Please model this.
Amino acid sequence: MEREPTRIMVAVNESTIKGYPNASISSRGAFEWTLQKIVRSNTSGFKLIFLHVQVPDEDGFDDTDSIYASPDDFKIMERKDRARGLHLLEYFVTRCHEIGVSCEAWIKQGDPKEVICHEVKRVQPDFLVVGSRGLGPFQRVFVGTVSEFCVKHAECPVLTIKRSADEAPQDPVDD
Amino acid sequence: MEREPTRIMVAVNESTIKGYPNASISSRGAFEWTLQKIVRSNTSGFKLIFLHVQVPDEDGFDDTDSIYASPDDFKIMERKDRARGLHLLEYFVTRCHEIGVSCEAWIKQGDPKEVICHEVKRVQPDFLVVGSRGLGPFQRVFVGTVSEFCVKHAECPVLTIKRSADEAPQDPVDD
Model:
């Protein structure tokens, strides 16, 4: 009898250029790479756990064409944000179903790097996959990266997948 | 027909406590973890490429009970060093043969982090596995780690596997 599947947590986020529901280049790249190079034909040997962390907007206003006039409007906005996150995850879940890999998907709110490490502790995946934009040393000083934090602090092995050069947009901060 | 196997480069080093030919706790841990969680039953889907980098001794004298009186003595020592590296690799290669995973093994000389990244560029594995001693923030400042360097600079995805807490010796620098 085959052992329990290897549980891979994959952190995914939205594109900084195209926004929701599009996944970032590095998320999609890391996901496809994992299927091709790790899962391969052994689809029953793995389970993917997608985690999307939404960063709460500082002022709560990101829809410039909307008017928030009552507390209910804010609740609607929260539901909309959640719906966008679901659409992002739908892409990954649909792809898994197509190729027959079991999966689950989670949306959480907060600081991505902190939430990812917290969820690793809670869910205890066998390892964590994080895409990285591969920022240069200059950007790294100011931006830091989620992947670097996770490699140091996540309580499981971490697979860091840099975006390949031919996928990178001109401005490395775009993704 | 099955595609080409996924080529995994695994960086391995000797134990700082027991010395050659014993592999470090983190090397053995990373290797066994890779077999159990990635390769699983799909032994024909993967090829392991072991890389052991030997750090040249600063003064060339590490055998305190030996006398080096002629150039030939140094050549003998070099061969001895090489033989030790081979014995270290033998452990990993033997284990692969037992379970039917194809592999190859390399010994190189130099600064491990630089050599590993150089070999990644040359051999172009699908990803690199590095064990990490999981040093605390205090040690990290002074020591740096091979794994951190590789995550940033290696031109392929990098899987960092920290030594688990129950395998760690009292002094985190021992391995």
About this structure: Chain A has a mean pLDDT of 85. Chain A touches chain B at residues 2-3, 6, 33, 37-38, 40-42, 45, 126-127, 147-148, 151-152, 157-162 (CB under 8 Å).
